[in-house]
Write a structure and sequence with these properties.
heterodimer, A: 112 residues, 81% helix, B: 180 residues, mainly alpha, 3-stranded antiparallel beta sheet, globular
């Protein structure tokens, strides 16, 4: 039983770490602030959730699992908000390759 | 929910978070949590939330399930983009109408969009109830923008069914009537 748990937990931890690495790679490789925010939210969030799940399977104490749950909940609340605010500021400041956008319906709303 | 009841709920939640962070529900932790919560609410009072809204457990569960699948899909999509040897992205900013959404619903949606495949909320136009969403890759050819818009409207539909007010659901139903 505990071997099965160990294996499941290890798989979760390793996939979480892999996603975190991909998120980091994305921050370096992607061309501008908007696409980088995609990397900073999605794989980073799922990666953390997988790591937390993997850890939750291995902790002995139920209250430690509750703390892990809390960490996950805050990631879900804060990651999208942070990305939203950074993206919005970048757009308003004209950072990023705004001219490369295929469609920009926000500029169509208030053309400058 | 009146302002006072709202503050009580908020205070209870803050105290609970405090106890969870300390990891054990001892008397000292509970009292400390209540003290910190009271202090926070006195020093940094939040404006009252207009209405508690309605939560439909079944629909909320469906939303959560859809959201979980979407989170996995979006992470894999970003992974594929990042690991491709040559980067070629066709990015776009797309306007999505939020059909008669309340502030809570808009918040839920804006957050959900940022974690669903290829999309990131950039701007919320509250008076016009419109979300502006950044799309990392609309793909080749026409129709990509429309496809993304439809996907977001689907997320929105599930969110409205889960936590939208009765009025909100009616406007959703009539909007869907109109598109048929």
């Amino acid at each position: 039983m505990s071997t099965v748990l160990d294996v499941v937990s290890a798989v979760l931890l390793l996939s979480g770490v892999a996603l975190a690495v991909i998120a980091g790679l994305g921050l370096v490789r992607l061309p501008d602030v908007f696409s980088r925010m995609h990397a900073a939210t999605k794989p980073a969030t799922l990666g953390l959730v997988l790591v937390l799940l993997g850890a939750a399977l291995r902790v002995e104490d139920g209250s430690d699992a509750a703390t892990l749950l809390l960490v996950g909940a805050f990631q879900f609340l804060t990651a999208p908000v942070g990305a939203h605010i950074i993206g919005r500021s970048a757009y308003r400041a004209g950072a990023g390759a705004l001219d490369d956008l295929v469609v920009d319906e926000l500029r169509e709303r208030d053309p400058s | 929910m009146s302002g006072r009841a709202g503050r009580l709920v908020m205070g209870g939640w803050l105290a609970l978070v405090w106890v969870l962070l300390w990891g054990s529900p001892s008397a000292a932790n509970v009292l400390g949590g209540l003290a910190v919560a009271t202090l926070l609410l006195l020093v940094l009072p939040l404006p009252p939330v207009p209405s508690p809204g309605i939560v439909r457990p079944g629909a909320l569960l469906r939303f959560a399930g859809f959201f979980a699948v979407d989170l996995v899909r979006s992470s894999l999509q970003v992974a594929v983009i990042v690991l491709r040897p040559r980067l070629h992205l066709r990015q776009a900013v797309v306007a999505v109408p939020a059909r008669g959404a309340s502030d809570q619903l808009l918040t839920l949606l804006a957050n959900a969009i940022s974690l669903t495949p290829g999309t990131l909320t950039l701007e919320v136009d509250r008076p016009r109830s419109t979300l502006y969403v950044h799309v990392i890759d609309v793909g080749e050819g026409p129709g990509g923008v429309e496809r993304v818009r439809q996907e977001i409207l689907q997320v929105e539909r599930l969110a409205i069914l889960a936590v939208g007010s009765a009025e909100c659901r009616r406007s959703l139903a009539s909007a869907e009537e109109g598109t048929r």
